[in-house]
Amino acid sequence: MSVLSRFRPRRAWRAEAPVQVSERDGLRSLHLGSDTVQSTMRLSDPVQLVLSYTRAMMGFLLFHPNPRHLFMVGLGGGSLAKFAYHRLSQARVTVLENSAEVIRVARQLFEVPDDDTRLKIMLGDGGEWVRRPEASCDVLMVDAFDGQSQVEALASEAFYGDCAAALERDGVLVLNLWSSDQRFDGFLQRVEKVFDGRVLCLPAERRGNVAVFAFRRAPEPSRWEALRLRARQLEAAHGLEFPSFVTRLSEMNAHTSHRLIV
């Protein structure tokens, strides 16, 4: 969810409360019980990541460029699921969403594809799933907000521990957090404790949202030169501003002139 992307909708559909959809200037947006935008789709390019926080969350590709199985907790309008499905052809994408109405709206109004061999969208509790012994993925993405704030049950130390256990040896947990939330530091400290400090923060272009990457193993590359090279390759492949991501990694993370310290 983007806390900064708000507007008075010119046109609105009302689904079963609290799911609402608005449209303005060629953009269609999902809301959950408030005017805060949860997800946005450009009608002329449904796969484009419009909101800067979704692009920042894809910054994990700097350290894990060839994911095999992405598991997402929270569907929203399906922006991340669609992008991963269409742009990361080697990866399976599994999404767990706790609202049947959100799934229905995402498929009817946000062009989320039907399930196939690479995409599976399930109705259920993300916290319950990561506790299962069979839970396994190499990228676990959590964007868990209600209409107002971060879902506390999906930001506890126990939940982050379950996420770590569900990750493969080279896995990465990707979180969307609000830096303006008074609980932000506490959430981040929980993640750092569970992942022994192997955590990086990437602020989104529009300030407020922060993508947090937590690694089972120390991430590579960590040297700026190597990161800039990979960023140029990823920008050419996926069209996202990866060179800018590298620059912004220096804002919230320990580093020297040569490398990130993580």
Structure in words:
The chain is 29% helix and 26% strand. The chain has 262 residues and is an alpha/beta fold. The strands form two sheets. The chain has a seven-stranded mixed beta sheet with strand order 7-6-5-8-9-11-10, with helices on both faces. The protein has a four-stranded antiparallel beta sheet with strand order 1-2-3-4, covered by helices on one side. A hairpin with a 4-residue loop joins β3 and β4. Residues 2-17 have low confidence and may be disordered.
Summarize this structure as a short list of keywords or feature phrases:
262 residues, alpha/beta, seven-stranded mixed beta sheet, 8 helices, 11 strands, disordered N terminus
What is the secondary structure topology, with strand pairs?
Elements: E1 11-14, E2 19-24, E3 27-32, E4 37-42, H1 52-57, E5 69-73, H2 79-87, E6 92-97, H3 100-109, E7 119-123, H4 126-130, E8 137-142, H5 157-166, E9 167-178, H6 184-194, E10 199-203, E11 209-215, H7 224-238, H8 242-252
Oligomer: single chain
Helix content: 25-40%
Average pLDDT rating: 90
Strand content bin? 25-35%
Q: Please report the number of helical segments.
A: 8
What's the total count of β strands? 11
Could you give the order of the helices and strands?
Answer: EEEEHEHEHEHEHEHEEHH
Main-sheet strand order equals 7-6-5-8-9-11-10
Q: How far apart, in Å, are the first and last alpha carbons?
A: 27 Å
Q: Which class of secondary structure composition applies to the elements? A: alpha/beta
Low-confidence stretches: 2-17
Q: What's the alpha carbon Rg, rounded to whole Å?
A: 17 Å
Query: What global shape is seen?
Result: globular
Largest sheet, if any? Answer: 7 strands, mixed
